[in-house]
Structure formats: structure tokens, C-alpha cells
């Protein structure tokens, strides 16, 4: 079993990853700045050791004895990245590369970087693979591309990075977010009786349950190093590509009284990508998703109903990272 460091362990995916790793017998150290402290709506699984602070301040001594790093800590989506593109690059790219350098110097064998399928941006074809052109449309996506490239230069004997290009996350988590397309549409239906689709509904998105992302990180921790060494791999399933309008239809099946409303807020959304996950199946043939979209949405819907999710929750700060981050931006600037 391994000693694993999870950065961003208090986040939407990190909350699952701590539990998943520990259940598999690994010892987990968590490092998180705590920008979203108090945003959880369920109890969090505690890591075996916790470092409350910025990953940029981790030293080689802090990393001594760590076998693998699951690096999730980041400004975590397009709108937040656009709030201050400079800070996005500092946090997502510069701090990640420096952490990788220190990890290599400390003898950490694996560095697993949480990337994103958003690097494909406006895809010029369907079923995009890892070798297709990258067309980043946001500072967030650009930061992920540059991180992959720069961390890759450190790869070599004894230091094996890999880049998990995650599909768009959704689903229930102790650190629930509703600023993600599936969760947002379900939350708006519960709050207002309206499934508010901001585009025309045509863009494609690959979707993956947040717990399945955590399970993918576990699989990468345990995989033969030669199968993933310095590889970018799309994380998701071929059957889990959906157009946004498909998601709206599924929400309406769960909440029949809710009407679908196209608000036109974003006009024609240029982010449009359907992704192939064949490489994941080849690299890790034993890995399979536990959730499809319907099952994940049913679970989240039940959880929201049980918690009495309301318009006050939809309009508040707790479950929308951008609103919380705006309040924390001064703190983030000081540590970046």
C-alpha cells in the first residue's frame, strides 16, 4: 500500500478521493488551503494526516515518504478561471509545476495531475482523442495544457507523471457544487420548477460522476507505471457523452412538473466537445465507471430532496464556488 498525498482534499472530488483511497488500504495525507471551508453539506472523511495551507508552500521535507501525489488543488472551472486569468495561471500552472519539481527532488514516484477535457474547447469533430488539436477557450483550459507540457519535461526514471483529462464532473458529494451543468439544471428545477438551459442545448459534453473521477485516481495510483507514464488520458466513458438538452430531458423525467426554459444567457456556447475514452480502456482495462448519468442524477436528486434543497440554497454562496471565491480572492492573492 502507498502513502498518497491528495491536494485539494477538501474539494468536490477530493472529499470522495480521501475515502476511496483509504478504503483501498492507502495512507492519505491531505493538503488544502481551506478556501471553501464551511461549504460542505455532509461530514467529510478525514485524511490520516492533514496540512491546512497552500500547496505552493509544501517543502521537500513535507513530501518525504510520499509515494504518489494526486494533485487536485486548482481554481476549478472556466468562470472562476476567468475571474482573474493571472491568478489562474499562478495557481493552476506555476504552483503545479513547482510542486512537481519538489516531488521529483523528494523522490515521489508518481505525480497524477487533474486535467480536463475542456482543453479540447471547440472541437472540430466528434469523438476527440488525446492526439487531436487542443483549442482552449478559457484561462482554466490553457492552464491545464501548459501544466501538462511543463510537468512532462520532468518525467524520467523514478518520476512518473500522468495527466487525467477528466470529463465534466457531476453528482453528489459531501462538498456539493451546483456550478456544474448537470447539478445546476437539477438544482434549478428543484428551486424554481424551471430547468434553465443557458445555451441552445446543442453543445456536447462528456460527463462523469465525481466519485468515478476519484476511482480513476485510485486506479492510476495502483496501475503499472509503464501503462500510464507521462500520458494524457481522457477520463470518462464513451456512452457518457451528452448534449446539454439531453441532460435537461433527464431532469424533466425526474421532476415532471419542471418546465425546460432556454434562457439564451450565453448565446451559442462555443465549448462543444464529444470525447473518446478508448485510450483509458486500453491503458486500464479493468477500470469501469460505476455511474451512468441517470443513476448519478437519481442519487443526487434524492439527496437534494432529503436535504430540503431550495431557492435559498440555489441563490446562496455555499454551493457556488465562484461566489465564495470572490469573497476569498484577497486571501488567494496573498498566498499565490
TrEMBL record:
Pfam families: Epimerase. InterPro entries: Epimerase_deHydtase (IPR001509), Lipid_A_modif_metabolic_enz (IPR050177), NAD(P)-bd_dom_sf (IPR036291). Gene3D superfamilies: NAD(P)-binding Rossmann-like Domain (3.40.50.720). It comes from the Bacteria. Residues 4-236 form the NAD-dependent epimerase/dehydratase domain. PANTHER family: BIFUNCTIONAL POLYMYXIN RESISTANCE PROTEIN ARNA, NAD(P)-BINDING DOMAIN-CONTAINING PROTEIN. This is SDR family oxidoreductase.
Amino acid at each position: 500500500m502507498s502513502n498518497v498525498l491528495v491536494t485539494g482534499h477538501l474539494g468536490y472530488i477530493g472529499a470522495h478521493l480521501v475515502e476511496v483511497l483509504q478504503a483501498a488500504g492507502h495512507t492519505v495525507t491531505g493538503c488544502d488551503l481551506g478556501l471553501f471551508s464551511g461549504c460542505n453539506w455532509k461530514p467529510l472523511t478525514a485524511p490520516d494526516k492533514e496540512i491546512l495551507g497552500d500547496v505552493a508552500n509544501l517543502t521537500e521535507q513535507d513530501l518525504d515518504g510520499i509515494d504518489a501525489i494526486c494533485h487536485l488543488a486548482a481554481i476549478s472551472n472556466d468562470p472562476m478561471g476567468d475571474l482573474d486569468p493571472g491568478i489562474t495561471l499562478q495557481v493552476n500552472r506555476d504552483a503545479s509545476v513547482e510542486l512537481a519539481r519538489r516531488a521529483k527532488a523528494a523522490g515521489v514516484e508518481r505525480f497524477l495531475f487533474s486535467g480536463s477535457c475542456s482543453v479540447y474547447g471547440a472541437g472540430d469533430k466528434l469523438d476527440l482523442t488525446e492526439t487531436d488539436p487542443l483549442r482552449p477557450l478559457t484561462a482554466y483550459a490553457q492552464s491545464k495544457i501548459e501544466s501538462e507540457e511543463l510537468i512532462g519535461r520532468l518525467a524520467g526514471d523514478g518520476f512518473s507523471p500522468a495527466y487525467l483529462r477528466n470529463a465534466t464532473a457531476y453528482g453528489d458529494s459531501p462538498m456539493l457544487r451546483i456550478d456544474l451543468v448537470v447539478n445546476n439544471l437539477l438544482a434549478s428545477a428543484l428551486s424554481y420548477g424551471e430547468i434553465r438551459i443557458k445555451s441552445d442545448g446543442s453543445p456536447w459534453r462528456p460527463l462523469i460522476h465525481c466519485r468515478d473521477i476519484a476511482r480513476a485516481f485510485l486506479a492510476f495510483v495502483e496501475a503499472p507505471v509503464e501503462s500510464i507514464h507521462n500520458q494524457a488520458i481522457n477520463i470518462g466513458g464513451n456512452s457518457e457523452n451528452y448534449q446539454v438538452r439531453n441532460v435537461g430531458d433527464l431532469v424533466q423525467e425526474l421532476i415532471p412538473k419542471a418546465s425546460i426554459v432556454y434562457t439564451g444567457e450565453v448565446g451559442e456556447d462555443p465549448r462543444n466537445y464529444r470525447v473518446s475514452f478508448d485510450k483509458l480502456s486500453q491503458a486500464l482495462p479493468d477500470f469501469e465507471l460505476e455511474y451512468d448519468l441517470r443513476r448519478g442524477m437519481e442519487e443526487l436528486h434524492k439527496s437534494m430532496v432529503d436535504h430540503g434543497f431550495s431557492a435559498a440554497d440555489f441563490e446562496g454562496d455555499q454551493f457556488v464556488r465562484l461566489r465564495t471565491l470572490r469573497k476569498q480572492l484577497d486571501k488567494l492573492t496573498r498566498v499565490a
